[in-house]
Amino acid sequence: EVEVDVRPEIEVPDYSGLEVAVAAREAGDDEVQKALDELRGRFGTLKSVERPAADGDYTTIDLLATIGDDTVDEATGLSYLIGSGSMIEGLDEALLGLSAGEDATFETVLAGGDRSGETAQVKAALTAVKERELPEADDDFAQLASEFDTIDELRASLVEKAKEDVVVEQGIEARDLVLEKLVALVEVPVPASIIEEQIEQHFNGENQAADHDTEDHRAEIKTNTENAFRNEIVLDAVAEKEEIGVDQSELIEYLIQMSQQYGMDPNQFAQMLDNAGQVPMMIGEVRRRKALAKVLELAVVKDSDGNVIDLSSFVKPAGDEQAESAE
Predict the structure, then answer these.
(1) Measured in whole angstroms, how far is the alpha carbon of residue 67 from the centre of its chain?
(2) Which of 36, 301, 310, 319 is the most exposed place for a label (fewest CB within 10 A)?
């Protein structure tokens, strides 16, 4: 006698006309101005200023990190944007208010290297303060930064883009709510062996610190695994009912999106998946995305003000193009 786990069979619930409500959003002037300023920032120039450093300034700094009498790390001539939080915890606060030629010392917990997790003294010496000078938002700029001849035409295009962004935000929110409501309509038993396998893989994998294996963390992994399994079973059932398939162009599009998330060349990413035998898994993921898109297409989506939201531009035939997992 042999015992094996089998995929549970479920009765597909009626998912036509599911109603969900999303937050009301508008593409206001602030969003359009922010987009315009970001575009101007791409063409901005840095100029040195003689004043204390402020949030959003670009700086040139020297760093010296020590633990006791030992120098842990040292670097000179680093370029750093105050407020980005991209270097060392505590650096932003230390640089604020400093002028060129001044320095500040602060404590921080090292996040990498041989002394990771230890507290170090860091001396930050500011050698230059620069601010980004933005070009004027006029017709000349519109011609430089876009295909438009006038700033009015450029602004109009940014308004349309802001509206599209609102639809995408509401679509993502509606998609998640629809999936949650769909799965709640049916009982999906989750085999205990699947939970145990996922938990052990998570905590026994490479680079897993022992202090991460806590009761709360295990409970979190258990919940995430159960939810992902239920989502997969229900969406597979919908795909079967709707006779949804995946063609080559849809799979290629999905692989390109995923390769961008991992910062890899699409061909190398596809080859890696093929060597690992994971292409069928990718096909299943695309199929489930299309199934969820179908359920969303049939749903009634309203905003918090009671207005019906048209998500036809968000629901694509190939499924969600936001490269976010349905699970």
Answers:
(1) 35
(2) 310
